[in-house]
Amino acid sequence: MHIVMIGTGYVGLVSGACFADFGHDVICVDKDQSKIDALLNGEIPIFEPGLDELVAKNVEAGRLSFTLDLAEALPTANAVFIAVGTPSRRGDGHADLSYVYAAAREMAPLLPKGVVVVDKSTVPVGTGDEVERIIREEAPDLEFSVASNPEFLREGAAIDDFKRPDRVVIGVNDEHAERVLEEIYRPLTRNESPLITMSRRGAELTKYAANAFLATKISFINEIADLCEKVGTDVGDVAKGIGLDSRIGNRFLMPGPGYGGSCFPKDTLALLKTGQDYESPLRIVESVVASNDQRKRSMGRKVVSAMGGGEQHGKTVAVLGLTFKANTDDMRDSPAISVVQALQDAGIKVKAYDPEGMDQAAKVLNNVIYCDGPYEALDGADAAVIVTEWDAFRALDLQRMKSLLKSPLLVDLRNLYSRRDVEEHGFTYIAVGR
C-alpha cells in the first residue's frame, strides 16, 4: 500500500516508520523545513527509544521518505493519515483543530480517486464529519472516504505499542475504507492483534474515553496514597491488593506527582468540552482534572514542608528528573514544572538533571541550574527530590549521595527506593503514600 503521513511529530513519525517496516511505501510530509531537513540528514527531532534505527533502516530500504511537497506525495496514495497536532485551544480548553482542517483543505484538490483519508490525530467526536465536508467542498467530484484510526502509543514504548498493540481501532462509515485499513493493518492481524471496527464517531470517542479512564486511575491512586499517609499504611500494598482483581488491573496504579505529557491533560479537557457541547456533563472527569492540577503543585509543597516549612528560604534542592515520564524528552505539562515553580516561589534554588529533557526544560523553566549528571546536581544541595522515574535514578549510590548533600534528605515522589535501605544510610526519607 502507498501511505502518506501528514505530520512528522511524535505520532506521525512513529506510525510512518512502523508502517514502512511492515512493507508499505510511506511518504511523510511536513511544513517545517527544519524538521524535513533534519530527517533527510538522518536526524530524529524527538527522543523515542529505537526510533532512529527504525527510520534509518526503512529509509535505506527505500520504503520511507520525507518531503515538504504534498503534490509530490499524494498522487499514488491509497491512504492519507492526518497526524498533526491538536493542542488545547487557548482560552477554552477545546481541542485546536485548525491544523487538521488546514491539512484537509490543502490536500483536497490533490487527492487521487478512491483514497481513504484517516484521522490519526486525537480529535473530538464529529471531526471526521467536518474533514469529509471540507474535502467535498474543495473537491466535489472526488470519490473518497474518511476514517478514524486513533493511536494508543505510550511515549518511551511507542514502537512496541505500534507493533504489538492491545487492539487496533478503526472507525469507518463505508466498506471501502474498512477494506483499505484492514489491508494496511494485515501484518498485525496475522499476529492475532485484534482489529476492532466501529463507526467513525465511535472510534473518535474511544480514544478520549480510554485516556480519561487511565487518567482517572492515576488520580484515584494518588488520592488513596494521601489517605494511606494519614492512616499509617503503605499505598503499594493497597495498589497490589486491588490491582490483582482482574476487573481493575494493576497498570496505572503507581502513585506519584500527577500525570502530564501530550495526551492526558489536553484530552481530558477536550472530552469535558465535548460533554458540555452535547449537554452531557462528565462529573468524574471534571474531578480528575481538578485533582491532578492540585496534585502537581502539592508535591512542591511536600518538598518545602520536608525542608522545615519556613526555614527553606535560600536553600537548594536537587531535582532529579524533569520530563513528564521516563524514556522521553517531552516536557509538556510535566509535574516537574509545577514542582520547580513551587520550590522557587518558596525561595528555594533549584539544580536539576534529566537524561534527555534538559534542552526542552530550559524553554519552560527559568533560573534553574542544569547539571551534567545526578551527582553534580546533588553536590551542595540541601535536599534531593526524585520527580521522574528514569532508570538512572533507581540505583544511585546512597553513600555518595549523603556525602554530597548538605543534609541527608531524600523526597522520592516515585517510590523508587525502600525506606529501610535509605534510612539505613542515615537519610530522612519522604515517599508518596507510605
Summarize the structure.
With 434 residues, the protein is of the alpha/beta class. Helix content is 43%, strand content 14%.
Describe the model.
- The chain is an alpha/beta fold and 434 residues long.
- It folds into 2 domains: 197 residues, Rossmann fold (3-Layer(aba) Sandwich), CATH 3.40.50; 236 residues, Rossmann fold (3-Layer(aba) Sandwich).
- 43% of the residues lie in helices and 14% in strands.
- Helix 5 packs parallel to helix 6 and helix 10 runs parallel beside helix 13.
- The protein starts with a strand and ends with a strand.
- It holds the Pfam family UDPG_MGDP_dh_N.
- Pathway: Nucleotide-sugar biosynthesis; UDP-alpha-D-glucuronate biosynthesis; UDP-alpha-D-glucuronate from UDP-alpha-D-glucose: step 1/1.
- Keywords: NAD, Oxidoreductase.
- GO terms for molecular function: NAD binding; UDP-glucose 6-dehydrogenase activity.
Describe the secondary structure blueprint for this structure.
Layout: E1 2-6, H1 10-21, E2 25-29, H2 33-40, H3 51-60, E3 64-67, H4 70-73, E4 79-82, H5 98-107, E5 115-119, H6 127-138, E6 144-148, H7 158-163, E7 168-171, H8 175-184, H9 186-189, E8 195-198, H10 200-231, H11 235-243, H12 264-277, H13 283-306, E9 316-320, H14 335-345, E10 349-353, H15 358-361, E11 368-370, H16 374-378, E12 383-386, H17 398-404, E13 409-412, H18 419-424, E14 428-430
